Amino acid sequence: MTDIGLMAYYLGIEVSQRKDGSFISQAGYAREILKKFKMDNSKSMNTPVECGVKLSKHDEEEKVDPTFFKSLVGSLRYLTCTRPDILYVVGLVSRYMDDPTTTHFKIAKRILRYIKVTMIGVEI
Predict the structure, then answer these.
(1) Residues 6+ apart with CB under 8 A from 16
(2) Contact 46, 114 (CB under 8 A)
(3) Within a domain: residue 97?
(4) What is the mean pLDDT of the chain?
(5) Which of 31, 45, 47, 51 could form a disulfide with 113 if both were Cys (CB 3.0 to 4.6 A apart)?
């Protein structure tokens, strides 16, 4: 077995090891997601979801492509490894992956706009 040194990057997670502990971040992965879904030049948001928003499976709104929506939500779910601040709202939109509407898609896009402002990590 060989010692390859300190870990710096693993499965999209950046690891910074210091004397007082380690710091993990997915800032690079977050930038990739923003580019993939063409949100890298969008306006930023200070909150991932509006206060008191109500979602329903029985909305009478236009449907969006479920495959595209699943790809977006799946990317957001992986990002929650280092972003506990978006865990609740990502779980909220995950409930509607089978039959997403434009409202569900707008909330998912708002999460991306929030991520753009708050690319942080977690100390471990």
Answers:
(1) 8, 22, 23, 24, 25, 121
(2) yes
(3) yes
(4) 86
(5) 45
Can you give the C-alpha Rg of the chain in angstroms?
Answer: 16
Quickly count: other Cβ atoms within 10 Å of residue 8's Cβ.
9
Give the model's pLDDT for residue 68.
Answer: 95
pLDDT in tens, 74-97: 999 999 988 899 999 999 999 999
Tell me the mean pLDDT in the region 9-28: 83
On whether residue 19 sits in a domain, the answer given is no
Number of domains in the chain: 1
- CA 97/CA 118 separation, integer angstroms: 25
Whether residue 46 lies inside any domain: the answer is: yes
Distances 104 to 22, 26, 64, 83, 86 between C-alpha atoms, Å: 35, 24, 9, 20, 15
Strands of the chain (E only): list them.
Answer: 9-10, 13-18, 21-25, 121-123
Residue 42 lies in a domain: yes
pLDDT number for residue 67: 95
Output DSSP code: residue 20.
Answer: T
pLDDT over 70, % of the chain: 90
